[in-house]
Amino acid sequence: MKTIQMTIDEPLLTAVDEAITGLNTTRSAFIREALSLALQRCKIAQFEQKQAEGYARHPVEPGEFDVWEVEQAWGNS
Any idea where the domains of the chain sit in the sequence? Predict the structure, then answer.
């Protein structure tokens, strides 16, 4: 691991400190987890953007997926 220095505003730091008390963790561990989750969200957003661009370039044709309707099992309601 590498030690870094960062600037954070007081209200955010206070909120972090309150959160870590209840979670029984450290600032560093909490911030590492928060950054990891933020990176996952960023990756998901990129995949969603690529998917949207793909569908914009190649829209679904009417009836394109009709063949799969008989395969859907919704169960008895």
Answer: 10-59
pTM: 0.71
Looking at residue 77, what is its pLDDT?
60
Residue 31: burial class (beta carbons within 10 Å; 0-12, 13-18, 19+): middle
Contact 54, 43 (CB under 8 A): no
Sign of the CA dihedral 26, 28, 34, 39? negative
Q: DSSP class of residue 58?
A: S
The CA distance from 39 to 2, in Å, is 18
